[in-house]
Design goal:
The protein is built from four helices and 37 strands. It has 505 residues and is mostly beta strands. It folds into two domains: 381 residues, Neuraminidase (6 Propeller), CATH 2.120.10; 94 residues, Immunoglobulin-like (Sandwich). A hairpin with a 4-residue loop joins strand 27 and strand 28.
């Protein structure tokens, strides 16, 4: 009895410590150590995960930033992939195809390239800036050889290997790439112009009927759909799991555009999604190096748009410290109303860990040291963020100490006391599968917000807790409900209100 009591007290004490230590903040789980046997070896532009701690890093040795122009973006001194399996800071790097051999990259050596090879077919990596993983073992590379191929590799515990799959995309330089859960592959041209109407191409995935991903002498499918983008430069693309929401980062305009539809019937611009970086969201250097939206990723549960925001291939040493390393962020964005729900301030994290904005270069195991975040990826099973430090020569894994669902469940719009209780019409409406509901609470109240079907049955409870006075916005995800008419009803103190909404899948 005494022994059991002591055990219970120990468990309570342990739980109290864990609960007390929870910070509801992001932090690195690890970064791959630079200048080590586990390092990427050179400037790291992108990371794509296929599972917890299983990922591939893309190295892109671009020209000296002092001579960087749009014209030289795809002319590189070296371009290769580094595979990691069961990785942490000091272990996990596996053999990868470097200059025609299964080997490991040499540290700080130029002219290292990955060749995609299958029998007598060979394509060398050239000007590739982004990767995408399919959640199992495949990695897709947006390559800029003459045919601008999507190249497919396979990662396992033994190494990173070429597959038999590739797909030619045309004559335009490509940049952003992603996949939906059906395996459809989305790729975006780097430049959008009025002369083109197909800047985003969607290809049916490997194994789909009639595709030629693995057909020798072919690899030339027509896209199943395309998207016409406005003029500008685009450096990020991501898609929701079901393919109904497509996001692209218009880096030249500091914007993210959202398109809705599906890969078979096509996509249209959603004008209600308005995300543009604020004028004061900058490092204040008066021009060159102004940060913009770079890579994008989609977190399916909870549904969040994840965006890397930093300067475009600009470091601190070349242009002075204020132009690069003190800035670099990851924004978590509401997929419906485009509000920023949370932020990883990578630059401030580096400062806290290393003591300087431009120091460490991965030697601490917790910080890349030189803030230069060009891309992000999501590993859904752990809700982990994978990113990189371009000038830190590292891949990085971030975890959240708290409940991510809170960000999309309830978000305060204003904590000023409203004049009364209020329940607004949901938006968008009709919706699929996400919609936003906004309500105002006049005084501290027990609030319950329910979803009801046409039979009067409660099918979901979105909010059930005591809340302070203020105006709030919640997201309702109806992915598990069939199409139809629904009602949402709020009880708050003596206030009750009900409104109708339409789910169209």
């Amino acid at each position: 009895m005494v022994r059991n009591l002591l055990l219970i007290l120990c468990l309570i004490s342990l739980f109290s410590v864990v609960a007390f230590s929870q910070t509801n903040e992001w932090g690195t789980d690890y970064i791959t150590l630079d200048a080590s046997a586990n390092g990427t070896g050179f400037q790291t532009a992108s990371v794509a995960a296929v599972g917890p701690d299983n990922f591939v890093a893309l190295v892109n040795e671009e020209l000296d930033p002092a001579g960087f122009t749009i014209a030289t973006l795809f002319e590189v001194q070296g371009n290769y992939l580094v595979g990691y399996w069961a990785a942490d800071s000091v272990q996990g790097r596996v053999l990868s195809p470097i200059n025609g051999q299964q080997t490991s990259p040499q540290y700080a050596v130029s002219a290292q390239f990955t060749d995609w090879e299958y029998i007598l077919d060979q394509v060398r990596l050239k000007g590739a800036w982004q990767l995408a993983g399919d959640g199992s073992d495949r990695i897709y590379v947006a390559n800029n050889d003459a045919a601008h191929n999507i190249l497919v590799f396979s990662l396992n515990a033994l190494g990173l290997f070429s597959s038999e799959f590739r797909m030619e995309t045309g004559t335009e330089n490509i940049y952003g790439i992603d996949l939906d859960d059906a395996g459809n592959v989305y790729v975006a041209d780097f430049e959008g112009t009025a002369a083109k109407t197909n800047e985003v191409k969607v290809f049916a995935g490997i194994g789909a009927a009639g595709t030629t991903w693995g057909t020798t002498g072919a690899h030339n499918d027509s896209p199943i759909s395309t998207v016409d983008l406005p003029d500008g430069y685009y450096q990020g693309l991501t898609v929701s799991s079901d393919g109904t929401e497509l996001f692209v980062s218009q880096t030249s305009e500091r914007k993210i555009l959202k398109y809705v539809g599906d890969p078979n019937s096509g996509y249209t611009l959603d004008p209600s999604f308005d995300f543009t970086l604020a004028a004061d969201d900058t490092i204040g250097n008066g021009g060159f190096g102004t940060p913009s939206v770079q890579g994008l990723a989609y977190m399916p549960d909870p549904p969040l748009l994840v965006a890397a925001v930093d300067t475009v291939v600009t470091n601190g040493s070349t242009f002075g410290e204020t132009t690069g390393y003190p800035y670099g962020r990851v924004y978590f964005i509401h997929t419906g109303d485009a509000t920023i729900l949370d932020t990883i301030d990578v630059a401030e994290w580096n400062l806290a860990i290393t003591g300087a904005y431009g120091a460490g270069s991965g030697t601490y195991g917790r910080a890349g040291g030189y803030t230069s975040i060009l891309d992000v990826d999501v590993e859904a099973s752990e809700q982990a963020i994978y990113s990189q430090s371009y000038y830190g020569w590292t891949a990085e894994k971030w975890l959240f100490d708290g409940d991510l669902n809170a960000f999309v469940r309830i978000n305060p719009v204003s904590l000023q006391v409203p004049e009364g209780y209020n329940l607004k019409q949901n938006y968008p409406n009709p919706f699929n599968p996400l919609t936003t509901i906004e309500f105002a609470i006049e005084k501290t109240s027990q609030v319950q917000l329910d979803i009801i079907n046409v039979m009067g049955q409660r099918v979901a409870t979105v909010v059930d807790e005591q809340m302070n006075a203020g105006t709030y916005r919640v997201t309702f995800d109806a992915k598990h409900l069939p199409s139809g008419i629904y009602f949402y009803r709020i009880h708050a103190g003596d206030f009750t209100s009900i409104k109708k909404m339409t789910l169209m899948k």
